[in-house]
Recover the amino acids of this structure.
Protein backbone atom coordinates (compact mmCIF):
# COMPACT_ATOMS: atom_id res chain seq x y z
CA UNK A 1 0.00 0.00 0.00
CA UNK A 2 2.84 2.38 0.83
CA UNK A 3 4.45 1.66 -2.53
CA UNK A 4 1.24 2.52 -4.41
CA UNK A 5 0.87 5.81 -2.53
CA UNK A 6 4.55 6.65 -3.13
CA UNK A 7 4.24 5.87 -6.87
CA UNK A 8 1.05 7.94 -7.07
CA UNK A 9 2.75 10.93 -5.39
CA UNK A 10 5.77 10.61 -7.72
CA UNK A 11 3.49 10.48 -10.77
CA UNK A 12 1.63 13.61 -9.57
CA UNK A 13 4.91 15.44 -8.92
CA UNK A 14 6.16 14.47 -12.38
CA UNK A 15 2.93 15.68 -13.98
CA UNK A 16 3.21 19.01 -12.15
CA UNK A 17 6.81 19.44 -13.31
CA UNK A 18 5.88 18.71 -16.92
CA UNK A 19 2.94 21.10 -16.73
CA UNK A 20 5.35 23.84 -15.66
CA UNK A 21 7.32 23.30 -18.88
CA UNK A 22 4.30 24.02 -21.07
CA UNK A 23 4.42 27.38 -22.77
CA UNK A 24 1.72 29.89 -23.58
CA UNK A 25 3.92 31.33 -26.33
CA UNK A 26 2.53 31.83 -29.81
CA UNK A 27 3.52 28.88 -31.95
CA UNK A 28 3.47 30.80 -35.25
CA UNK A 29 6.57 32.86 -36.05
CA UNK A 30 5.91 36.58 -36.17
CA UNK A 31 6.79 38.29 -39.44
CA UNK A 32 9.95 40.39 -39.54
CA UNK A 33 9.37 43.99 -40.72
CA UNK A 34 10.46 44.53 -44.28
CA UNK A 35 10.61 40.88 -45.33
CA UNK A 36 7.43 40.87 -47.35
CA UNK A 37 6.03 37.72 -45.75
CA UNK A 38 2.63 39.30 -45.23
CA UNK A 39 0.04 36.56 -45.61
CA UNK A 40 -3.45 37.65 -46.59
CA UNK A 41 -6.45 36.01 -45.10
CA UNK A 42 -8.89 34.71 -47.70
CA UNK A 43 -11.44 37.14 -46.28
CA UNK A 44 -9.41 40.35 -46.52
CA UNK A 45 -10.54 42.90 -49.11
CA UNK A 46 -7.09 42.96 -50.69
CA UNK A 47 -7.35 39.24 -51.35
CA UNK A 48 -10.95 39.13 -52.57
CA UNK A 49 -12.07 42.45 -53.96
CA UNK A 50 -9.30 43.25 -56.39
CA UNK A 51 -9.33 40.35 -58.85
CA UNK A 52 -12.39 39.50 -60.89
CA UNK A 53 -13.54 35.91 -60.87
CA UNK A 54 -12.67 34.37 -64.27
CA UNK A 55 -15.36 31.71 -63.86
CA UNK A 56 -18.13 34.27 -63.45
CA UNK A 57 -16.68 36.70 -66.03
CA UNK A 58 -14.72 34.71 -68.65
CA UNK A 59 -11.88 36.62 -70.26
CA UNK A 60 -11.67 39.28 -67.53
CA UNK A 61 -8.73 38.27 -65.36
CA UNK A 62 -7.43 41.74 -64.67
CA UNK A 63 -5.03 42.46 -61.87
CA UNK A 64 -5.33 45.66 -59.84
CA UNK A 65 -3.17 48.48 -61.12
CA UNK A 66 -0.58 49.80 -58.70
CA UNK A 67 -0.89 53.55 -58.43
CA UNK A 68 1.13 53.81 -55.25
CA UNK A 69 4.12 56.08 -55.57
CA UNK A 70 7.07 56.26 -53.19
CA UNK A 71 6.35 58.62 -50.32
CA UNK A 72 9.32 60.84 -51.10
CA UNK A 73 8.10 62.04 -54.54
CA UNK A 74 6.27 65.09 -53.18
CA UNK A 75 7.17 67.60 -50.48
CA UNK A 76 4.29 66.46 -48.29
CA UNK A 77 5.14 62.81 -48.87
CA UNK A 78 8.81 63.39 -48.07
CA UNK A 79 7.89 65.27 -44.90
CA UNK A 80 5.58 62.47 -43.73
CA UNK A 81 8.12 59.80 -44.68
CA UNK A 82 10.93 61.62 -42.85
CA UNK A 83 8.86 61.84 -39.67
CA UNK A 84 7.72 58.22 -39.89
CA UNK A 85 11.28 57.02 -40.57
CA UNK A 86 12.56 58.99 -37.60
CA UNK A 87 9.94 57.42 -35.35
CA UNK A 88 10.67 53.93 -36.69
CA UNK A 89 14.45 54.23 -36.17
CA UNK A 90 14.07 55.61 -32.63
CA UNK A 91 12.24 52.39 -31.71
CA UNK A 92 15.57 50.54 -31.96
CA UNK A 93 16.88 49.89 -28.46
CA UNK A 94 20.33 51.20 -29.40
CA UNK A 95 19.06 54.60 -30.57
CA UNK A 96 18.05 57.57 -28.40
CA UNK A 97 17.45 60.14 -31.15
CA UNK A 98 17.28 59.98 -34.93
CA UNK A 99 16.73 62.22 -37.95
CA UNK A 100 15.91 61.00 -41.43
CA UNK A 101 15.73 62.56 -44.87
CA UNK A 102 14.42 60.47 -47.79
CA UNK A 103 15.98 61.14 -51.18
CA UNK A 104 14.80 58.93 -54.03
CA UNK A 105 15.75 55.36 -53.17
CA UNK A 106 18.15 56.43 -50.41
CA UNK A 107 17.53 57.70 -46.89
CA UNK A 108 20.03 59.77 -44.91
CA UNK A 109 19.77 58.82 -41.24
CA UNK A 110 21.60 60.48 -38.37
CA UNK A 111 21.49 58.74 -35.00
CA UNK A 112 22.51 59.41 -31.42
CA UNK A 113 23.01 56.18 -29.52
CA UNK A 114 21.98 55.52 -25.96
CA UNK A 115 24.83 55.58 -23.47
CA UNK A 116 24.93 51.81 -23.03
CA UNK A 117 25.37 50.99 -26.72
CA UNK A 118 29.05 50.76 -27.68
CA UNK A 119 28.84 49.23 -31.18
CA UNK A 120 28.71 52.35 -33.34
CA UNK A 121 27.15 52.48 -36.81
CA UNK A 122 28.23 49.00 -37.89
CA UNK A 123 26.69 46.87 -40.64
CA UNK A 124 24.35 45.11 -38.18
CA UNK A 125 22.88 48.43 -37.08
CA UNK A 126 22.70 49.74 -40.66
CA UNK A 127 20.78 46.63 -41.67
CA UNK A 128 18.31 47.19 -38.81
CA UNK A 129 17.93 50.87 -39.77
CA UNK A 130 17.31 49.89 -43.40
CA UNK A 131 14.60 47.44 -42.31
CA UNK A 132 12.94 50.14 -40.18
CA UNK A 133 13.10 52.70 -42.99
CA UNK A 134 11.71 50.17 -45.49
CA UNK A 135 8.79 49.51 -43.15
CA UNK A 136 7.81 53.12 -43.89
CA UNK A 137 8.69 53.29 -47.60
CA UNK A 138 9.44 50.14 -49.63
CA UNK A 139 11.03 52.28 -52.38
CA UNK A 140 14.03 52.93 -50.12
CA UNK A 141 16.73 50.39 -50.95
CA UNK A 142 19.77 52.15 -49.44
CA UNK A 143 20.56 54.03 -46.25
CA UNK A 144 23.40 56.29 -45.25
CA UNK A 145 23.60 55.95 -41.47
CA UNK A 146 25.98 58.02 -39.36
CA UNK A 147 26.64 58.74 -35.72
CA UNK A 148 29.31 61.38 -36.47
CA UNK A 149 28.21 64.45 -34.49
CA UNK A 150 28.88 66.95 -37.30
CA UNK A 151 27.08 64.87 -39.93
CA UNK A 152 24.18 64.13 -37.56
CA UNK A 153 23.80 67.88 -37.00
CA UNK A 154 23.80 68.36 -40.78
CA UNK A 155 21.08 65.71 -41.25
CA UNK A 156 19.10 67.26 -38.39
CA UNK A 157 19.35 70.68 -40.09
CA UNK A 158 18.37 69.15 -43.41
CA UNK A 159 15.35 67.45 -41.79
CA UNK A 160 14.29 70.82 -40.35
CA UNK A 161 14.73 72.40 -43.80
CA UNK A 162 12.52 69.66 -45.27
CA UNK A 163 9.76 70.46 -42.75
CA UNK A 164 9.47 74.01 -44.12
CA UNK A 165 10.36 73.31 -47.75
CA UNK A 166 8.07 74.19 -50.62
CA UNK A 167 10.19 72.29 -53.15
CA UNK A 168 12.39 69.20 -52.96
CA UNK A 169 15.04 70.67 -55.27
CA UNK A 170 16.93 72.59 -52.57
CA UNK A 171 16.66 69.74 -50.07
CA UNK A 172 17.85 67.16 -52.62
CA UNK A 173 20.83 69.32 -53.60
CA UNK A 174 21.93 69.63 -49.96
CA UNK A 175 21.26 65.93 -49.37
CA UNK A 176 23.41 64.97 -52.38
CA UNK A 177 26.26 67.09 -51.02
CA UNK A 178 25.94 65.41 -47.63
CA UNK A 179 25.65 61.97 -49.22
CA UNK A 180 29.15 62.41 -50.66
CA UNK A 181 30.49 62.40 -47.08
CA UNK A 182 28.64 59.24 -46.04
CA UNK A 183 28.92 55.53 -46.75
CA UNK A 184 25.78 54.10 -48.30
CA UNK A 185 24.55 50.71 -47.10
CA UNK A 186 22.33 48.42 -49.20
CA UNK A 187 21.47 44.74 -49.14
Amino acid sequence: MKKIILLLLLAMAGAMLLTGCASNADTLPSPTPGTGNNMLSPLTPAATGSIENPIQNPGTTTMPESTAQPLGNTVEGAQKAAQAMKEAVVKLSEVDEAWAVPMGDTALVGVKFNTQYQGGADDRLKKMVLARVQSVDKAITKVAVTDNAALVTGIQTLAETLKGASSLDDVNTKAEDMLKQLTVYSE
In short: Confidence is low (pLDDT under 50) at residues 35-70. The helical segments are 2-20, 45-48, 75-90, 123-136, 149-163, 168-179. The chain has six helices and four strands. The longest helix spans residues 2-20.
